[in-house]
Amino acid sequence: MCGCLEGYEGSACQRSVCPGGCSGHGVCRYVEELSSQYSDSNWDTNKIQGCDCDAGFSGLDCGARLCPIGDDPMTVPTSGLGDEWVVTVNFTSGQAPTQGEIHLDIGSLEDHSTVSTRPINLVTNTKEEIEKTILDTGLVKSIASSSVTTGASAFVYHFRLSEPLRLRNIRVRWEDDCTVAGCQPRKLAPLPAGILKGASAAVVSAAEAKAESARCSNRGTCDGSSGQCTCYEGFYGRACQFQTVLI
After folding, report:
1. 163 and 135 in contact (C-beta within 8 Å)?
2. Residue 228 phi, psi (nearest 5)
3. Is there a contact between 46 and 36 (Cβ–Cβ < 8 Å)?
4. Which domains does the chain have, with CATH numbers?
5. Cα-based distances in Å from 65 to 19, 61, 84, 223, 227
6. How far apart are alpha carbons 241 and 183 in whole angstroms?
7. CA-wise closest residue to 15 among 50, 61, 49
8. pLDDT at residue 241 above 90?
9. CA 115 from chain center: how many Å?
10. What is the mean predicted confidence (pLDDT) over 218-223?
11. How many CB atoms lie within 10 A of CB 75?
């Protein structure tokens, strides 16, 4: 039996432990699970572990509460404020589906939560129906414009948001395992096998590049124990995002 050094575990002490057991506010995961870009052939794929924090918590051990973020009221954002998304679903050439559903996972930068949309029907949903599906998540306040381009090899969805979303990430999912009653978001029209070649979601122009997405808006201090901002004199709001009127 191996007596592992501090910070390691396993029958052969072959993997690192997660700090503080993630404080009861997260899940311990392998490095390949924490990053979708990590190769499963890397030597440390099943050796290094880290905490995947629950929504509203942060830190190496998920022990700190997240304070709200906001736009610094003392700076002037550039024009054209808002996010721009492009969602692309690629098909085997010449085999555009006659049915199929996807859904989008939208991550909030404010509390690190992720909200899934209802399934979006690739074939029958109109541009207006897709917009409503996104707006119904509550993370997006308004959409300035959108377009849908369909073809034999790809469907492309373009959305321009009219105000900052504080977006952390966005991804498209098409798994067909959620097709039974009680599963959410349940798909009623799964994609035919062999049709889908790949799918991606990209943030072309992000709001945080044009306006701050700063903890307490850079106008207060964050209390990690409570997740609340203490605003500097002259500023107020949940994220200290407003300036008081000077007299």
Report:
1. no
2. -115, 150
3. no
4. 8-65 (2.10.25), 69-75+210-243 (no CATH), 84-209 (no CATH)
5. 16, 11, 29, 8, 5
6. 39
7. 49
8. no
9. 8
10. 94
11. 11
DSSP bridge partners of 156: 88, 149
pLDDT band at 11 (very low <50, low <70, confident <90, very high): very high
Per DSSP, the residues of 80-111 read S-S-EEEEEEEESTT---SS-EEEEEEEETTT
Phi, psi dihedral angles at 129 (to 5 degrees):
-70, -40
Interatomic CA distance for residues 170 and 137, integer angstroms: 13
Structure tokens at 118: 């209802």
Tell me which residue has tokens 């096998």.
193
Going from the C-alpha of 14 to that of each of 1, 2, 6, 11, the distances in angstroms are 13, 10, 12, 7
CB 173 within 8 A of CB 105: yes
228: exposed, middle or buried (C-beta count within 10 Å: 0-12, 13-18, 19+)?
Answer: middle
Instruction: Dump pLDDT digits (tens) for 151-206.
Output: 888 899 998 877 655 666 788 887 777 888 888 788 888 888 788 877 888 777 65
Q: C-alpha angle 129/140/214, rounded to 5°?
A: 165
Residue that the structure tokens 């003392």 belong to: 74
> Whose CA is closest to 139, among 122, 164, 158, 120?
164
Kindly report the number of other CB atoms within 10 A of residue 118's CB atom.
Answer: 19
Kindly state the tokens that stand for 120: 């979006």
Question: Buried b / exposed e across 160-188, counting CB within 10 Å, b at 16+?
Answer: bbeebbbbbebbbbbeeebeeeeeebebe
